[in-house]
Design goal:
Elements (H helix, E strand, L loop, with lengths): L1 H18 L13 E3 L5 E6 L3 H4 L13 E14 L2 E14 L2 H25 L3 E4 L6 H8 L6 H23 L7 E3 L6 E5 L1 H12 L13 E2 L2 E2 L6 H6 L6 E10 L3 E3 L2 E2 L5 E11 H21 L3 E3 L2 E6 L1 H9 L4 H15 L7 E5 L8 E4 L2 E3 L11 E7 L6 E8 L6 E6 L1
Parallel strand pairs: 5-13, 15-21
Antiparallel strand pairs: 1-3, 2-3, 3-4, 6-11, 7-10, 8-9, 10-13, 11-12, 14-15, 16-19, 17-18, 18-21, 19-20
Length: about 425
C-alpha cells in the first residue's frame, strides 16, 4: 500500500514540477506535495459473503471468493513558496482473487445507485434555486444569511440538505434485502465546482468592493442634502448585468459515498448527473435594495448633510460624549454609531455593521467642544476607511460598501453635537 501511495505522490510531484518548471529550478526547493509523517492509517474489512449469494448467475463455487476492502487514510502537505496547507485524503482499494467478478458487482450496484440519483434529480429538475420567496428552510437560511456570497457556505448547507433528502429518498425506494447500502463516512456525498459567476459574486460584492469614487455618493445626496429614499443605490451598486438565474455551483454525486454489502463503489467515482445551484437576479436585487435602505436610514438617523467633500453626522450629547471618550479609537467610534443606530432605528438592523478596515492606524481628532473629525490623516497615508457591512456578522458572508477612506481620497466625515 505504501508503495502504491508513494508512487502516486511522486507522479503528482513530477506533473506539478514540470508544469511549474520556472519555479522548481533547484533540487533544494521543497516538492509540491509531501505525505505528513505518522498520518497514515489503514483500515481493512472483509466483504460480506452474503453479497455473493445474491448473484444467481455465478458459474463457480462462491466459497472460494476472498475479498478485502482497504481504506488508506493519510494527510498531505501542499507547499508553494512560503505557503503551506494540509489536506486529508483517502484511497479505497479492493483486493480479491476474482477480479472480474467483483468488478461486475461494483458496476452492478453503482448502476443501481446511479439510477436512483437520476430519479432524485429528475424530481428536482436538476436544480436548486435560491430566491427571496423563502419557500423552504434551505432557501430561507441561504438567502437570509447571504450564504450564496461565499461558495463554501453554499456547498456545506446544500450538501447537508441534499444528503438528508437523498438518503430519505433511498430508504423509500430501495429494497435493502437486495441492495444493502451503508454510508462511507470517509467520503463526501457531493463533489462541487464553483462557477465563474459564483466567484464573481463573492469578489465583486464582498471582497473587493472598495473601488469607489466621490460620485458614488450621488445616489444618497442631492444639493448637499439627503434624498428622499435609497432607490438609486441598486443601480449604482449592482453594476453587473446578471442573467435572470445566476449559476453559483454545480454538484456531482460521489458514488464512493456508498458501500453495498461492504463493497465501495470505486468504479466511475463521480456520477455525471449534476444538480446546479442558482440565485435569481431578482433575489440579488432585493438584497442590494435592503442594503441600500439600511445605509440610507443610517445617514437619515444621524441627520447627515454633505458639505463639499465633508459629510457631517449629527448626534445628541450622550452619543457625542461617548465618542469623545473614545476619540483615539476609530473602531470604538464606529461601534458607538452603529449600536445606537441598531438599537433605535425603526427598521430591522440585525444585519447592519460598520468596520474600520485599517483598525487603529490613525486617530480621530476633537476639533472643538461640538465637532470631531473622524480621521486626523497625517502625511496623506493610506491608513483608514469606513466599511458598511450587510450580513449576519462582520466575519461574513456579507455585502460591503466603502463610502469613506484614505485609499481613494473619498469624502471625510465629521461628528457634530446638535
Amino acid at each position: 500500500m505504501d508503495y502504491i501511495i508513494n508512487n502516486w505522490q511522486k507522479s503528482q510531484n513530477r506533473e506539478l514540477m514540470n508544469e511549474y518548471s520556472n519555479f522548481y529550478i533547484s533540487s533544494n526547493i521543497k516538492p509540491p506535495t509531501e505525505i505528513v509523517k505518522n498520518s497514515v492509517e489503514i483500515i481493512g474489512n472483509y466483504i460480506n459473503p452474503e453479497v455473493f449469494n445474491l448473484n444467481k448467475t455465478t458459474q463457480f463455487d462462491i466459497s472460494n471468493i476472498k475479498t478485502i476492502n482497504l481504506s488508506y487514510k493519510f494527510e498531505i502537505e501542499l507547499n508553494y513558496k512560503e505557503h503551506k496547507t494540509k489536506i486529508n485524503l483517502i484511497g479505497e482499494f479492493i483486493f480479491t482473487n476474482h477480479k472480474e467478478y467483483i468488478k461486475g458487482l461494483v458496476n452492478k450496484y453503482a448502476s443501481k445507485i446511479l439510477e436512483e440519483i437520476k430519479k432524485f434529480n429528475s424530481e428536482k429538475n436538476n436544480e436548486i434555486i435560491i430566491d427571496d420567496q423563502q419557500n423552504n428552510s434551505l432557501n430561507k437560511k441561504l438567502y437570509e444569511n447571504n450564504n450564496f456570497l461565499f461558495s463554501n457556505n453554499v456547498v456545506r448547507e446544500i450538501s447537508k440538505y441534499i444528503k438528508y433528502e437523498f438518503l430519505n429518498f433511498l430508504d423509500n425506494n430501495i429494497n435493502k434485502n437486495e441492495v444493502n447500502y451503508q454510508i462511507n463516512d470517509n467520503e463526501e456525498l457531493l463533489h462541487s465546482v464553483t462557477s465563474r459567476e459564483g466567484w464573481k459574486l463573492y469578489y465583486d460584492y464582498s471582497v473587493y468592493r472598495d473601488n469607489i469614487s466621490d460620485q458614488d455618493l450621488n445616489w444618497l445626496f442631492s444639493n448637499n442634502n439627503l434624498k428622499d429614499n435609497a432607490n438609486e443605490f441598486n443601480k449604482q451598486y449592482l453594476r453587473e448585468e446578471w442573467d435572470d438565474k445566476i449559476l453559483l455551483n454545480s454538484s456531482s454525486f460521489n458514488l464512493c459515498y456508498f458501500k453495498i454489502w461492504g463493497i465501495p463503489l470505486i468504479s466511475n467515482s463521480f456520477a455525471n448527473e449534476q444538480i446546479n445551484v442558482y440565485l435569481t437576479k431578482e433575489a440579488l436585487k432585493n438584497k442590494i435594495n435592503n442594503f441600500g435602505n439600511l445605509i440610507y436610514q443610517f445617514f437619515k438617523f444621524f441627520n447627515a448633510i454633505k458639505d463639499g467633500d465633508k459629510i457631517k453626522l449629527f448626534v445628541n450629547s450622550d452619543i457625542f460624549n461617548q465618542i469623545k471618550s473614545n476619540v483615539t479609537s476609530k473602531s470604538k467610534i464606529l461601534d458607538i454609531l452603529s449600536s445606537n443606530f441598531r438599537n433605535n432605528a425603526s427598521i430591522d438592523t440585525n444585519y447592519f455593521w460598520l468596520e474600520n478596515s485599517f483598525k487603529n492606524v490613525s486617530k480621530s481628532k476633537l476639533i472643538d467642544d461640538s465637532t470631531i473629525l473622524f480621521n486626523d490623516d497625517q502625511n496623506n497615508k493610506i491608513n483608514w476607511e469606513v466599511k458598511f457591512i450587510y450580513g449576519r456578522s462582520i466575519y461574513g458572508p456579507y455585502f460591503s460598501y466603502i463610502p469613506f477612506g484614505s485609499k481613494y481620497q473619498e469624502s471625510n466625515f465629521y461628528i457634530v453635537k446638535q
